[in-house]
Amino acid sequence: MILVIAEKPSVAQSIAKVLGATSRKDGYMEGGNYIVSWCFGHLVELADASSYDERYAKWRYDDLPIVPENWMFEVTKDKAQQFKVLSALMKDKRVTELVCATDAGREGELIFRLVYDKAGCVKPFKRLWISSLEDSAIREGFNHLRDGKEYDRLYEAALSRSKADWIVGINGTRLFTTLYHKKLVVGRVQTPTLAMLVERDGKISTFHKKKYFNVHVGKGDLTADLEKVKTEEEAKKIAAACEKKQAVVSSLKRETKTVNPPKLYDLTTLQREANRYYGFTAQQTLDLVQTLYEKKLLTYPRTDSQFITDDMEDTARQVISIVCRQLPLFSGVSVTPDTARVTDNSKVTDHHAILPTVQLEKQDVSALPQSEQKILNLVGMRLLCATGEKHTYAETQISLSCEGYEFKTKGKTVVQNGWKAIEELFKASLKAKEKDDPVKSLPEVHEGDMLDGVSASVTERFTTPPKQYTDVIFCERKEWIGIEERSSA
Predict the structure, then answer these.
(1) What family classification does the UniProt entry report for this protein (predicted)?
(2) Catalytic residue IDs
(3) Does some domain include residue 290?
């Protein structure tokens, strides 16, 4: 028989259904040639320092650093029963082969391997690597199982990360706690994260706003600006010099510009947009996407790719049609998707971009919690936008010369709305309307035109401090400097 081990019970149930393992037992399911069981996240973890030497039970400066030569692992106490189930199944003489069906990522690999090693199992195993829990995806995955050894380096990377966390956390926390006689927690990720917050707060607290002035001249519908004049005296001098005087259109430049559709969502961009539109924290968004993944309505969440592979184009087109039928916000929308725009095999590593699944066709979306509906609308909107037409507009830049001073303005006119029509439809549905930069159209003028008797005015402005980190901007910066663990469980 083949023992399949998933990361959690809900995923195991989805797999068991496809494999026909419908007979429920204590801690697993069985049927046909398969036994399907599960972990509860990490069943096995690195042992505490006191497991290496009893003296480490007390925190002492002189014992540092603690760096194990031979690493020890222990079963998580509150999950010991499920480990016993898995260990017994691995030793079952009926089982000749295993399938690692934990999440297809670094942390999922570690979860399985630590249980496998701790149980002393040496039976061969294969790897199930899928990006969706749809029945069709599971069947396809089992038809193309990979040799487990192909993922040895992924496991080693996860194990190295875990050991690094242990070394930094154990030693750093004990060091600063013993030095300052107060528990001070240090972590490989949390400490540089804290440093980023302190740095930003320092810049905000020491910021001193500075005043500056903008001078405006114009006539009728045409107004141009001279920005960031340092003193009020100078600004008023410029305004007085130009008041009621003649201005000339010294330069006029027109050009057609395009804005390409956005890319599909990876996890970070989805978290950023969910925060922007709904106020969800990064963790809330991850939890919602994970739930929708387990409900088979979204593909795998912990991805860093914003593209799909060429073998997915037909499915993507099918999903686009489903989105337009199933999500009320987009019902009646007519699109001609260009899926080639989001297809690039070289930019897809472990998992493709986050997409709705064809299972959405069978889902009564109105029956889902509002928060899950919001995420589906967001992912659906991005899929339609990413495969839509370019947004095209005509931009006009005008310079006015008056009394030796140059004033500038610019405006634009939409030529073809393209993908932005979908985005605008989405934004219009929000209770707190998302404001775009206003589209400023300019009157028809020509280079060399004279404007007699222009009016002039001055407005006061202030420089602004750095912004406080929002949850998602913070995630983006952590990812950029390399401390964000996007694929960790």
Answers:
(1) Belongs to the type IA topoisomerase family.
(2) 300
(3) yes
